[in-house]
Amino acid sequence: MTNVFCRCIVQIFIFFYIQSAACNVWADGQYEVIIHPDVSDKNLSIKSLRAIFGMRLHTWSNGAMIRVFVMSDDASLHQKFCKEKLNIFSYQLRLAWDRLVFSGTGQAPIKVNSSEEMLAKVANTPGAIGYLWKADINNDRVDVLQIQ
């Protein structure tokens, strides 16, 4: 009886592990972090990405100023990006930005209202970073940032 029970438990864990892995691959493949073509950092650690979008890292490795663009807090892409890439809920990120602004120690990122505006702002602003659905990315105008 215990041998059958153990096998069932192992199969359940394997099932959920495979489901979780499949969901993560699917979710991460839908959108990309994009940067202005003049940004010299084409690869970035997840820690640095969190610092950039948390408004704690202000310059790229070459000293150029980072300009952060985000979508509204209720946009589905913004929520997915926060949860999947930054490992934080969008409302927690908003609280961190508000704290910086109200304490006078920092700024909030620049909000855009659409994918088209995100593409245009990142493509036309030196040092810019943002995120877009893969289908909306025009690789001639922006580069995709590789996250390690």
TrEMBL record:
It comes from the Bacteria. This is PBP superfamily domain-containing protein.
